[in-house]
Design brief:
Strand order of the largest sheet: 5-7-6
Distance between the termini: 176 Å
Radius of gyration: 53 Å
Structural class: alpha+beta
Strand content: 5-15%
CATH superfamily of the domain at 106-202: XPA C-terminal domain
CATH topology of the domain at 106-202: Nucleotide Excision Repair Protein XPA (XPA-MBD), B Chain A
CATH architecture of the domain at 106-202: Alpha-Beta Complex
Helix content: 40-55%
Length: 279
């Protein structure tokens, strides 16, 4: 019996040893799974942060009227390292707002209508015409005129309006008749009248030139009308304009013997000679 007990004791020790060895492996597996879960959680948090940053950039670009995601470019600094720069941020930095210059007492302009000083006005800033906003009369005295009307009414050319010194300022507006047409250029009527007097000398010279051009237009219309009427008469009464085409008929005289079997004869009208042979 004692031998049997001694033989069974090693088996019990083996079982105890196996149980002791199994418990650390379970702890190792548990620690491994916990580390994997922690790592996956960290990766998920990083992905969420990256997605939120992209969405924030897209919202900023949409506010600026752009739909593309802001991207960074790398620039070589020339000192051994690279610099990341954002093109959109650089574009925003380039926008510089100009502030008006400080007002000084000597910079005030005197209005030519009321003789009062003023700081700024629409006519002064747009057309360099020293009139304050209180004295501005856009209906009559300070009305504007288009470039085409200035050419037709005051007989001014493109050079007179846009290149002759001092240059006349104008305001560019969209054409109200059709947006596809060219933009309108509006000039101040007072300045256009002054420029016309500089070019032509007086109002009488402008009226005389109007009369000369009107007469030329009427003469050109009459000439064109007569030409069309003549062409119409030719088409309707073509028999009156028929051209007779007839060839010259020779009237030869007597035959003259030249020698051998050759003879000739001469036209009595034009002197044409014909040589021929007789058998």
């Amino acid at each position: 019996m004692s031998n049997d007990i001694e033989e069974k004791q090693p088996n019990v020790e083996c079982l105890v040893d196996n149980d002791i060895d199994a418990s650390p492996s379970k702890h190792v597996v548990t620690k491994t799974r916990a580390a994997q879960l922690a790592r996956s959680e960290r990766n998920r948090q990083k992905a969420l942060l990256l997605r939120q940053s992209k969405l924030a950039n897209q919202q900023i670009n949409k506010k600026d009227g752009k739909t593309s995601v802001g991207c960074t470019s790398v620039v070589d600094s020339g000192a051994g390292f690279l610099i990341e720069e954002n093109s959109q941020v650089e574009a925003k930095k380039m926008k510089v707002t100009e502030e008006p210059a400080p007002v000084i007492a000597g910079d005030l302009t005197i209005c030519i209508e009321c003789d009062k000083p003023f700081l700024d006005s629409y006519l002064s800033s747009t057309y360099d015409h020293p009139v304050c906003d209180k004295c501005k009369d856009t209906e009559d005295k300070h009305s504007v005129i288009t470039k085409s009307e200035a050419k037709e009414t005051y007989l001014l050319s493109e050079v007179d309006l846009m290149k002759r010194e001092p240059l006349l300022k104008c305001v560019v507006r969209r054409n109200p008749r059709n947006n596809r047409w060219g933009d309108m250029k509006l000039y101040l009527k007072l300045q256009v009248e002054k420029r016309a007097l500089e070019v032509w000398g007086s109002e009488e010279a402008i009226e005389d030139e109007h009369e000369v051009r009107r007469k030329k237009k009427e003469d050109a219309k009459i000439k064109k009308f007569n030409k069309n009427m003549k062409q119409l008469r030719k088409e309707v009464r073509s028999s009156l304009y028929s051209v007779k085409v007839q060839g010259h008929q020779h009237s030869y005289g007597e035959e003259q013997h030249i020698g051998g079997d050759e003879y000739n004869k001469t036209c009595s009208t034009c002197g044409h000679q014909v040589t021929f042979e007789k058998m």
